[in-house]
Design goal:
With 443 residues, this protein is mainly α. The chain contains 19 helices and no strands. α6 runs parallel beside α9.
Amino acid sequence: MQTHPSWHRRVWLLAVPIILSNVTVPLVGAADTAVMGHLPGAANIAAVALGASIFSLVFWTFGFLRMGSGGLIAQHYGADDDAAIQNTLLRYLLTAVAISALVLLLHAPLLSLCLWLLDADPQLQAMTSDYYAIRVWSAPATFANYVLLGAFIGLQQTRRVLAFQLLLNLLNIGLDLLFVVVFDFAIQGVAIASVISEYCAMLFALFLIRDHLRAAIKHCTPARLFNRTAVLQLFNINSNIFFRTLLLVGSFFYFHAVSARLGTLTLAANAVLLQLLYICAHALDGFAHATETLVGQAVGARNRGHFKLAIKAATVQAFIVALLFSTTLLLFGTQLIALFTNQTDVRQAAAVMLPWLVAMPLLSIWSYQLDGIFIGATSTAAMRNGMFISTVIFVAVTEMFGEKLNNDGLWLSFAVFSLLRATTLLIKLPSVYRQIPPAPHAS
């Protein structure tokens, strides 16, 4: 099946605003790292890296609020079912409120558990605790923002995604500079900036989606909101994504923990490299999000032809952009590392690992695209199972080769992890296609 040029244009129209918005997400982490990286000692960079990894574990474990809402709303959008869109939005927002209350209630034991797992230097643990004690209060806004962002993507309102992300992340960067550079609040300033930004962005997103919310509240009844079939579907989708995301975030947490075991310098160097990788990953995720919403729309419309065309157009373009990223890192990697820190030892340690970073966009693009396909189709059990297999092998390979090859061994196992994520989903892709009910108008 040849891909009509209109599909490439359609992918670009959806992907470009999301790419622009997504790039601002890791720029916050990059700004955090760069601001702390120009303070004395590698401990400042390392503490921010540990703090960010804890919040990835605690917060993004509930990433089903974004992925589940986006996939379901995309399907309801394809089926032209406004009532289902409204009910789904309300269900996910109520779930976000419940989860944020739970996280705030358990925030102290969660921190203790994470610090015990990390087993980092006592100085790093103290700095990380200072960061966590402030940042955790962003939980209600963060979880609501996951839902609202998923709704925008599912409704193909990519300009609103861009506006939302620009406000959230550029405000965060500006407040970073204000609190750390001007007011000298150090790591506490980074945390305060994140909390303020999340709440401001939440208010803005609620304003943008006010029409859907008004309609949802106006027509809301307990019978519709707590419909047994819909609630069970939401539970099945979300529980699978929850365990899948817990494993994914846990893998990155494990990466930081092994880096900490290898020493503060290695942890700081890897933190810089991961910031560059996050920029590439979030940009490439723009194509995955475009795939997600187009696949969800095709599934909702029962159109197998559009399902295949969306995947082909988005994946071809994603690979081309991944190749451009790898080429850029190859040519300018050392200069990019220098933007994050003025400390010679950290720069040198990061530069040694640069070949691994160059390879990562080309190794990981396939898993990003497949994630988008499976989220759009809400085929979440396969995502959970594939991530379990990938994570187990990642940890096993790291423990086998990590001490022998040091940081090279860690990056080797991380590369294997990326390829396994794609392979385990690719095997299941034909079954996703077969699950789409054929319709007379399918092409």
